[in-house]
Amino acid sequence: MTPLGLYLSRRSINRAEVSRRTGINKTRLSELCNNTATHLRADELYLIALAISADPCEVLREVCGHLGLAKSDE
After folding, report:
1. Stronger pLDDT, 74 or 29, i.e. the higher one
2. For the purposes of burial, counting CB atoms within 10 Å of the CB of 4, is it exposed (0-12), middle (13-18) or buried (19 or more)?
3. Separation in Å, CA 14 to CA 9, 36, 74
4. Helices 3-10 and 26-34 sit at what angle, rounded to 10 degrees?
5. Which pLDDT score, from 0 to 100, does residue 72 have?
6. Which of 2, 7, 21, 26 is deepest in the core (most CB within 10 A)?
7. Which InterPro entries does the UniProt entry name for this protein (predicted)?
8. Cβ(26)–Cβ(34) under 8 Å?
C-alpha cells in the first residue's frame, strides 16, 4: 500500500466517494493507493485533499514526508 492509501485508510475515507467528488476514476485512485510505482500528481493530491476536507499541506506531508534531499559530498 502507498502512503496515500495508508493515509486514507487511517482516516476511514471512502475511496468511491473521493472518486466521485474529484473526478479521478476509481481505477486511477486504486493505483494511487495500492501501487508504489504509480506517481501522484500535484493536482490529484490537491483534489483529494479538498474532497476529504483536509489541508493539502497536511496530505502532502503524510504522502511525501519520507522524502529528503540527497546528501552532498562537499
Report:
1. 29
2. buried
3. 9, 20, 47
4. 100
5. 82
6. 7
7. Cro/C1-type_HTH, Lambda_DNA-bd_dom_sf
8. no
How does DSSP classify residue 38?
A: S
Other Cβ atoms within 10 Å of 63 Cβ, number? 21
Between CA 38 and CA 15, with CA 63 as vertex, the angle to 5 degrees is 70
Could you identify the residue written with the cell 466517494?
17
Question: Rounded mean pLDDT of 17-27?
Answer: 97
Residue ranges of alpha helices (H) inside 3-68 are 3-10, 15-22, 26-34, 42-51, 56-64
Q: What is 3-64's CATH number? A: 1.10.260.40
